[in-house]
Give the backbone structure.
Amino acid sequence: MTLAIDPAETSEPSPAPLSDLVARDAREFGVYARTGGWAFGLMVARSVRPGGQGAQETAKVSAKEFAELAGCSPERVMRYYKAWDRAADDGMVPHFEALAPGQDVELPDADVWLRYYVSRDSATSERGTAIAEAAEAEGIRPTKALEVAENPTALRAAILADPSTARAARRALLDRVREDPELQAELARDVVRTDDLKKAVASESRSADRIGYVRQIAESGQVRTPAGQTIDAPADLRQEAERHLSLIDELEDDEDTGDWATEAYDTMKSLVAEAVEADPELRVQERRTKFYSSLQKATKAFEELTFDDVQDFVEDDMVQRLEELQQAITGCLTALRGAKG
């Protein structure tokens, strides 16, 4: 037996009538998805009267009245107002005077809005403007930089907890300190007052001096001997300096150069000493330079002795030491005279 099937039982149920409220939400969502904050900026621009325009001259309302109707703060309204104003100055949108309540205009892309709108009052200050400009130069949204600047405790927590954040902060400080003498002085005081930092700076300074010694040999082809002479470096010595420098230059920024600098410096000093000893004329000149240097130091030390009021503190030991010095000088003179003769 064949059963008759009512078509109404097998067909899909008819959809409910579309709610006007849903349709309105969808349209408004689509507008915002395409234009972002421009949609709200337009609402403010066409409804809030510009400064200097009286209430009788336009159907627009003040920012305060608009905020009361919107249920938000006048400051928030003004942030949209100022963003639109900046964009109008750039020719992106019409000026306030050209807009009337309810008027629609073609709006820029949503991404462009972030160039003009900042969600914090601090952005309007001189400090905020500088932060916003720096953020744009780094390719980030000004709102992100302003948020960090307004919450230094959060910045401190991120630096303490995250090594990569600490490294970014260090690089930023180094860039800033080059142009900020006051910050330079503050950091210097912090360093000398912190024993661990002071030791670390001394160690790095020593490494830098040693690398500088090696670099001087490699780049100028000259070397300073232990006695203080400046001579032309032999070719093999210069090549060795270049080899050590290339190894140091290949190190990553976060690698410790201390051991490499020490090895390069010690190698160079040893090779320089060997080069001096291998050249009879240079060896004599080195000893002569060293002798003169010691003689000058001894002469200066003796000249600095003063005998004012010596009777108040003279001791037998002082006299004995001067007598020994006199004997040593006499021996030196005898040796020098004998060498000349």
The mean pLDDT is 83. The beta strands are 222-224, 230-232. The chain has three domains: 25-117, 124-192, 195-284. Residues 189 and 320 are 46 Å apart (CA to CA).
